[in-house]
């Protein structure tokens, strides 16, 4: 993906280097980052358009899971589309 943004500190969550946002611990010790595509593109400091970023993540969801243990989920509501990235512990 890209480099992290300034302001990597988190209030009420765990700061993760390279993500540049707030990760919330969830059940099983996993870290979860939920954002809209526009916010995620800004946090990653990329010039990629938000819809292209969401499409690229959608296409590469299998690789994210297999190589980096990151589960990608997208959802849609009246407020817009959101992207959730969850860091899962490696399975032995």
Structural commentary:
The protein has a 5-stranded antiparallel sheet with strand order 1-2-3-5-4. Helix 1 (37-43) crosses helix 2 (50-59). Mean pLDDT is 74; it is low at 1-22. 14% of the residues are buried. It is of the alpha+beta class and 92 residues long. It is built from 3 helices and 5 strands; from the N terminus they run E-E-E-H-H-H-E-E. Strand 1 and strand 2 form a beta hairpin. The two termini are 25 Å apart. It has one domain.
Separation of the first and last Cα atoms? 25 Å
**Percent of residues in helical segments?**
25-40%
Q: In total, how many beta strands?
A: 5
Q: What is the residue-averaged pLDDT? A: 74
Domain unit count: 1
Approximately what portion of the residues adopt beta-strand conformation?
25-35%
How many helices?
3
Strand order of the largest sheet: 1-2-3-5-4
Instruction: Provide the succession of SSEs.
Output: EEEHHHEE
Overall spatial form:
globular
C-alpha Rg (nearest Å): 13 Å
Low-pLDDT runs of 5+ residues are: 1-22
Query: Quaternary state, please?
Result: single chain
Structural class: alpha+beta
Task: Give a short account of the largest sheet.
Answer: 5 strands, antiparallel
Helix-strand layout with pairing:
Layout: E1 14-15, E2 22-26, E3 30-36, H1 37-43, H2 50-59, H3 61-68, E4 70-77, E5 80-87
Antiparallel strand pairs: 1-2, 2-3, 3-5, 4-5
Helix pairs in contact: 1-2
